[in-house]
Each structure stands twice: as structure tokens, then as C-alpha cells.
Task: structure prediction
Amino acid sequence: MSDDEMKVVPGVEITPGRLISSNLPDMDYPAYSPTKAYEVGDYTTIDLINYQALVANTGRNPVTDTSSPPIWQNMGWVNKYRMFKKNIGNTWKIGTFTSNPEVIELTIRPGKRVSAIGFVGVRASSIRIVMTVPGVADPVYDKTFVMSRKAGGSYYQYYFGPFQTKDNLAQFDLPPFNNADIRVIVSAPGGTAQVGMMIVGWAKGIGTAVYNTSLGRKKYSTIKEEFDGSVTITKRGRRRSIDFQVVLRGDEISSTQRVLDDVDDTPALFVGSSELEYTVIVGIFDDFDTGLPTYNRGEYTLKVRSLS
Result:
């Protein structure tokens, strides 16, 4: 599988059993207590989910209470898990991320063979990935990837030039052990480390993305103008989009369709080229349009919308 081949990576679900260590707390707020008198706006955490009280109450469990209108609002996953999970049932909360002062450090145990790892929505200076397996003294994989650096090489550029940053990272060279632990260190010295989403799984090639691939971004903030000209801006999330234009051999069309069938309506990592970090996206594809191949050369369009 070449570096410039377009790939899709269905993600391994990261459960508490697979997240074997983390420097982030399990709860963002105090655990729910049936004897506590909650006021409007109070927060609590149950089973890795945060809730906010919409009504003053006592003994109304956020998980089991079925009042209408609701007494509690589900605020989504705790900070520790937002880089793996964003859905509340079938609803995905865009614009959320895991963050921590200076460093996010964790170890996962996928429990199966994986070949790829990807990150989107990163704010950090570097990401280090270390794989270890039982019975082997040294790591089987240990690489550090720079996500932010000073542009250029001159004295002036180093001290006064802008930073060059990367928001996304995808690697496809993980050794395919089925019993490996993967340690991830996201470092932001003096700042706040942030990861929108992280995906680990087995990469599958689906052709080659070509130059008329297009990038987009849609924001969901609202702007309301009042009669006196004042403006109220309600900030909300935004979604990235990539319309991949892909070429492949005609005899690869059926296998590519099967690969995409497996991630239909399922979040996955899509990568146009690992060398072009802006073609890395975690989301679902809206459309897959292909024509009949000519001289064993096929083309298709794949429209991917982010869920991060």
C-alpha cells in the first residue's frame, strides 16, 4: 500500500477496557448523588457522560428519568473520551474535543491487528506514538511527529516568523501485532494539548485521489441582526468536507464498493494522501458515484463530511 494511495480506516471502538491508562480523570464533575439537591445549571457525571440540570431536583436520576420536558440535559462524553466518542445515541456533537494542559498521554490495547492511526483537530507541538508487545524488551514502533514548528531557517524567521502547524496526522506503518499496546503522547509545552478525534484500525486502499479533489468547511454559527443594527452571534460548531476525486483500475471497483459498504453510515478515517495532512478527515461519506471503466481505468467521486 503506497503512501499516495487513498485509504479508509474503520475505527476500533475504544471502550474503557481498551483504554488501559490515561492522565485524564474519569469524571469531569462530581458523581451523581440521589440525595443531593441539584440547582438549575448544576453538572454531574454518570458512566462517563456529563449531564446538566435544567430543573431543580432531588433523586431524579439523569439516566433513568423520563420526564417531559426533561429535567436533565445530556451534555455528551467526559473530556477523557471525547477524542474517541462524540455521539449521544445517533446524534454527534461536532466541535468537541479532548484537551488537557500541556500533555495528553494514554495507552490503548486494541485487542486485534491494526496498521493505521489517525488524529484530526490537533493542537499540539508533537505527537509521539509508541507500540509495545509482551515479551519484547524494546518498543516495536516509536516515532515522534512534529505538529508545529517555526517556518524557515533564518535567525529572523526563527524568532519572528509565523508557526507552521498541522491539524491532522495519519500513519500507516504500524506493525500488525494482535497483542500490542499503543501509547500516545500529545505534547503542547506551555499551552493546551487538544485532539478532536483519534482513530486506530486496519487501513484499506480505495484508489488514488487526484488533483481536482476539493476541500470545504461549513460553520453552523448563527448571526441575528436587530432593528437597531446590533448583531447577536451564537457560536456553534463547524464541519469540514472533502469531495475526493479518485481513480482506480477497473477491476478494483467491486472490491472498493465492498470496502465502502462496510463503513456506510459509520465514522471512519479517510485519507487522500498521508503527505497532505489537509486530506485527512474523520467522518462519513454522503455519496459514492462511479461510472463504467474505460480501458480498465475507473473514476469515482466520494463526498466525505466530518464528524469532529
Notes: Residues 206 and 235 are 36 Å apart (CA to CA). The longest helix spans residues 253-262.
